[in-house]
Design goal:
Elements: E1 5-6, H1 12-21, H2 27-37, H3 52-61, E2 62-63, E3 69-74, E4 80-85, E5 91-99, E6 102-106, E7 110-112, E8 127-130, H4 133-149, H5 161-166, E9 182-187, H6 197-208, E10 220-224, H7 228-237, E11 242-246, H8 252-258, H9 261-264, H10 267-276, E12 285-291, H11 299-309, E13 314-320, H12 334-346, E14 350-353
Parallel strand pairs: 1-2, 6-9, 9-10, 10-11, 11-12, 12-13, 13-14
Antiparallel strand pairs: 3-4, 4-5, 5-6, 7-8
Helix pairs in contact: 1-2, 4-6, 7-10, 11-12
Bound molecules: S-adenosyl-L-homocysteine and iron/sulfur cluster.
Iron/sulfur cluster is lined by residues 113, 115-117, 120, 122-123, 191-192, 225, 246.
Length: 375
């Protein structure tokens, strides 16, 4: 028996090819693609503007996969954490951060992660496997479905910080935000997206396709620990996506210690790749900086950070370290965070200190673990 093709793995051009291989006209591909990604069809029978014959053929050769959340937890700040169980039993998580009708969804790209950063819970589990393109886009589709059924009600005090974080606040070309829309996608969940580019690139193409998930490429952000050749490939293949880089240290000595990837691509090479990344117009590279108490949170670090990034269009995300059981690091003090933040602001850097949104449900940065640990 031949294995059926999961159509959610296919970009529009790949679907065209698939149908052409079956002797079908190209325009059929747009119809099927829209049924899948815009009307969320789960079976071929629903595709009423498509001939019965083609529907029958597709049923024989293809499937449309789906994900349903196994558990949804909502934090006191409205953050929602979704646990998905994959077909092979692996678990992954996505986190929705709703702020004033502008939803940011943080999705996973791998089960586990091979990069082994010392401060990251996901990293301590090693890589189980890459997610497929279908599994990446299915996180978005499942959350959208949940948002329609169950729109978020927001606490009035919901912080502003994340809006500015991922949103370039130009609303002029858009409809007013709706609580059931996902506005920003950030690939900052479990895994290193650039370690799975073969599946991540088609997933991004589906996200930004006008016949697909219709997201603006200005609102898709890929976060990396610094895989230099893959940054170059991403820039070549999808030049308009936003880039976030987890810098986290200002000397090779410390970065080598806490992020093994630095031994392959030291800070200088990483920054060169950032400088060369094709960012359109006034867009900036986001530098994420996890503040580890007593380790990288001094004013000397702030000074070095500024010097390192000052010739790259930049903004800085300060992420106070989120502690987890068994980790050898401490969260920074409020005083250290404020002083670091002020140092940069005073020198005209755009800096956002991320509040620990979702930390009461272990949904904050670095706390995602899939199904590895039973609490
Ligand atoms: N692998 C990619 C994207 C996922 S990690 C990357 O490393 O960029 C998303 C962000 O969470 C990274 O900036 C990482 O530095 C940060 N992070 C990891 N563990 C953390 C922790 N325990 N506390 C705070 N931030 C953490
Ligand atoms: Fe992987 Fe990113 Fe965690 Fe490092 S910080 S282990 S790259 S998920």
């Amino acid at each position: 028996m031949t294995v059926k093709t999961d159509l959610k793995n296919l970009t529009l051009p790949a679907l065209e090819q698939f149908l052409q291989g079956q002797g079908k006209e190209r325009f059929r591909a747009i119809q099927v693609f829209k049924w899948i990604f815009q009307k969320d069809a789960c079976t071929f029978d629903e595709m009423t503007n498509i001939s019965k014959e083609l529907r029958r053929e597709l049923t024989d050769t293809a499937v449309i996969s789906n994900l349903e959340a196994e558990a949804v937890e909502e934090g006191s700040d409205g953050t929602r954490k979704y646990l998905f169980k994959l077909a092979d039993g692996n678990g992954i998580e996505s986190v929705l951060i709703p702020i004033e009708g502008r939803n940011t969804l943080c999705i996973s790209s791998q089960a586990g992660c091979a990069m082994g950063c010392e401060f990251c819970l996901t990293g301590t589990f090693k890589l189980t496997r890459n997610l497929t393109t279908a599994e990446i886009v299915n996180q978005i589709m499942a959350v959208k479905r949940d948002l329609v059924r169950n729109p978020p009600t927001l606490p009035a005090s919901a912080g502003e910080s994340l809006v500015n974080n991922f949103d370039d606040d130009d609303d002029s070309d858009e409809h007013p935000p709706s609580p059931a829309d996902i506005r920003n996608i950030v690939m900052m969940g479990m895994g290193e997206p650039l370690h799975n580019l073969d599946n991540v690139i088609p997933a991004i193409r589906i996200m930004i396709d006008g016949n697909g998930l219709q997201l603006s490429n200005r609102r898709v952000t890929v976060s990396t620990c610094g895989l230099v050749p893959e940054m170059e490939r991403l820039g070549r293949e999808i030049p308009n996506v936003n880039l976030a880089v987890s810098l986290n240290a200002t000397t090779d000595e410390l970065r080598d210690r806490i992020m093994p990837v630095n031994r392959r691509y030291p800070i200088k090479e990483l920054l060169r790749a950032c400088r060369e990344f094709p960012l359109p117009g006034r867009r900036k590279v986001t530098f994420e900086y996890v503040m580890l108490g007593g380790l990288n949170d001094s004013l000397d670090d702030a000074k070095r950070l500024l010097r390192l990034i000052s010739d790259i269009p930049n903004k800085v995300n300060l992420i106070p370290f989120n502690e987890f059981k068994g980790c050898g690091f401490r969260a920074p003090t409020r005083t250290a965070i404020d002083a670091f933040h002020k140092y940069l602001i005073d020198r005209h850097v755009t800096v956002i200190t991320r509040d620990s949104r979702g930390s009461d449900i272990s949904a904050a940065c670095g706390q995602l673990k899939g199904r590895h640990v039973v609490d």
